[in-house]
Design brief:
about 400 residues, single chain, 4 strands, alpha+beta
Length: about 400
């Protein structure tokens, strides 16, 4: 594309051994003989880009290439986001596994306590079976967690382009996660960091330049050509002064009966602009909604975490009191089981809330561009302003 803006230079050299027909246009002395025809020629041409067609085509090609590069950056950000979210998903599952293991030990102690009370005649086999059932449920949940942990490790390894067992020993910890601070409001211009929006904007620019190029096809095409060289039959006269050949001249072409095709091409290019602008506007609306959703979720999760602290504390205290009353013979075992079940549920909620905060933070980083910097250097106006200019 860039080469079309400058003069084109070519060099051609040929040597052909040929028998000339006796009944053709070749005059006697050469007719019926076999001669070697030698030619060497230096040629040049320059298509004058008076109406900017080649410049528009070059800008469109550059815009499309840079949009493709921004798409590649968006894919990298998406991949890194998936890896980060998968990593902390694994951390959450491992934390739940440790919590479930502690609860399993607690349930086994409860089974031992009930078994002793049954032996003392203080409880019946019904309470023992209830305690054993609760312990078996914890074992079942641990087995399910093992499956989820294994599948998550496999998914992470696949995202990293490694074998299924590459992360078999990976054990991320919650303490590795940092809680980031976010302002209550995020300036809209930060969305310009998103690679997908940059790509969409560049495609609008490229489509507009395609329209400019389509318009220039209605104008005359002017070019200059020149050549100089040597052309002779045989080697003896090849470098003789009389074998010189040269020429120069302009060429002009003007579409006369091609207007319908050119207008159809222009309408097609204009439709591409409308489609690119629609895609950009849709991507922009989605980006704004994405950021707003993540900020709303973060604010809500902070409030939920604060309230969950009180819920978890009261659930722990209720379980401890129910167990103490049961040991003293002042309460029923059903109360203990209900308190333990509630405590387990609240522990899971606490873990899930912390995971959701980290996951939402990662999603917000991605929504704001994920650290992508637009170093493309392509002079692009906003889609709305360019649309107004077209109108």
């Amino acid at each position: 594309m860039r080469a079309d803006l400058w003069p084109q230079v070519g060099f051609d050299a040929t040597s052909t051994r040929q028998r000339f027909t006796e009944n053709g246009l070749i005059p006697p002395a050469y007719a019926g003989s076999t001669q070697t025809q030698n030619s060497v020629e230096l040629s040049g041409s320059w298509e004058l880009d008076l109406f900017g067609r080649h410049r528009a085509e070059l800008d469109a090609a550059i815009g499309s290439a840079r949009a493709a590069d921004a798409d590649a950056q968006a894919a990298r950000i998406q991949l890194s986001t998936q890896i980060a979210r998968g990593w902390y998903t694994l951390a959450r599952l491992l934390e739940q596994q440790r919590t479930q293991a502690a609860i399993r030990e607690q349930r086994r102690q409860t089974v031992g306590l009930v078994r002793n009370r049954v032996a003392s005649g203080l409880d019946t086999t019904v309470e023992l079976r209830q305690a054993e059932n609760q312990a078996f449920e914890v074992d079942r949940d641990l087995a399910a967690l093992d499956e989820q942990i294994g599948n998550t490790r496999h998914a992470l390894a696949a995202l990293a382009g490694q074998g299924p067992e590459a992360l078999a020993a990976a054990s991320p910890q919650w303490r590795e996660a940092r809680t980031l601070g976010w302002p209550d409001e995020v300036p809209a211009d930060l969305l310009g960091r998103r690679a997908d929006l940059v790509a969409a904007r560049l495609r609008v620019e490229a489509a507009l330049r395609d329209v400019d190029g389509a318009r220039t096809l209605f104008y005359p095409n002017i070019s200059l050509t020149a050549f100089v060289g040597l052309n002779a039959l045989g080697f003896s006269e090849w470098i003789d002064r009389g074998s010189r050949t040269y020429g120069a001249g302009p060429a002009i072409s003007l579409p006369i009966f091609d207007a319908d095709r050119l207008r159809s091409n222009l309408r097609s290019r204009s439709a591409d602009v409308d489609d690119a602008i629609g895609t950009y506007n849709g991507a922009l609306v989605d980006a704004v909604r994405d950021v707003a959703d993540q900020l709303t979720s973060l604010a809500s999760l902070r409030d939920q975490q604060q309230r969950q602290v009180d819920v978890q504390r009261t659930a722990d205290e209720a379980r401890q009191l129910a167990t103490a009353r049961y040991r003293a013979g002042l309460g029923t075992f059903l109360t203990v089981l209900q308190a333990q079940t509630n405590e387990l549920a609240q522990r899971r909620v606490t873990i899930d809330l912390r995971y959701r905060v980290i996951d939402t933070q990662i999603a917000l980083v991605r929504a704001l561009g994920g650290g992508y910097r637009n170093d493309i250097g392509f002079a692009a106006e906003t889609a709305s302003s360019r649309t107004s200019a077209q109108e």
